[in-house]
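Annex B. Sample input.
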Amino acid sequence: MLEKFLNIFRIPDLRKRVLFTLGILAVYRLGAFIPTPGVNTLQLERLFNSQSGSALGLMDLFGGGNLRRMTIFALGIMPYITASIIFQLLTVVYEPLARIQKEGELGRRKITQWTRYMTVVLAALQSIGIAFILTRSGMVLNPGISFDLMTVLTLTTGSGFIMWLGEQITDRGIGNGMSLLIFAGIIAGLPRGVGDMVIKVQTSAWGSLTIFAVLLLALGMVAVVAFIVFVERSERRIPIQSARRIVGRRMMGGSSSHLPLKVNSGGVMPVIFASSILSAPLLFGQMEWVQNNKFFQPIMQALAPGYPWYELLYMLGIVFFAYFYVSIVMKPDDIADNFRKSGSFIPGIRPGKRTSDFINDILTRITLVGALYLIIISLVPTFLISGIRFDKIILIGRFFESLPAWATHGLGVNFYFGGTSLLIVVGVAMDTVNQIESQLIMRHYDGFSPRSGRIRGRKNW
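Annex B, continued. Sample output.
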């Protein structure tokens, strides 16, 4: 394995890409320690410590602690993700935009450029909301119009710079730029999570069974990692038979292969999209007049992480975006048309519409399995941190008051490698390893996995 790892640095182009990616990630982490001018960071830190299980804590998790410290990268990658969701939805429901997307590389460039503009607009709006909330909460050293303008300019520029860093990793690095930035932000919370667990052991936070509970959590994390790897590697293989045909004087085709359909084709994107959408009402809910309003206050509380309505919308969002993402990536009609053009067919299935329907039915079933898997993984940190407040359900909440305290109030474990964050870390790590491995195999080097083999080049005569 060490020899295969060293092969990365023996290929000049691959070595340059890896070092460039590491350099960009270092710049991203450096910006995470540059605070926004005029903010009382100590008071803000106390606010986040008191609301670690709320939507604020969820946004801070994806930002790698930038929002907690109100750095120049406080908005993180969320404005770009939200803008991407908006344009991907518009390409489905708005026909002129769908035609632009079908124009090929030129159309994709136009949509990418509009996504950048939308990112800046969303970042500016969120910056205005943050400046207003900080001023109202008394966390500003010198409030005034100068602070508001400086905050909007700083946070919007920081969000645009993060978007540029992600695009640079995608174009000149090892790919998956935006996912790697989220990965780096979550990894940055690991020392804080481990330190929290060490403090719990030292103070016997859970009584005499504290050490046993910590070991059980560690084993559970390993089991979740194994489960994630197993499902991410799982796929449904549809057998494909190529018909024999004569091309010139040669007989072509007649071979058997398969069409691999991954169980979780969307990867971590449905979870990120659902989290981003449900985090949007956060700024609205943090406003003072909303918190004091008798109509909006219970609604905003019900939409906080750990409450049944939030978790229900979160699960529905994951299911929706799982199917939505698959509908963009996999198009059964195009696959069936390509089979027809190449003379390939699925045994027992007629070419054309029947093949398209067959592939669509399989995608529908396995996507549901993938969505349920994402829901299970995403609910793990909820039980660890805050539980699900079933006792707060209107009218029927009293029937859940007899549930154990850990079910409704959680275990108070602020461990950053549970559920959603673990899914993102493992998924992005696997994708990155696959991309590096493909680069190695393309250049006739052994990959990381034993089955990757070695591709031998043509002999030099």
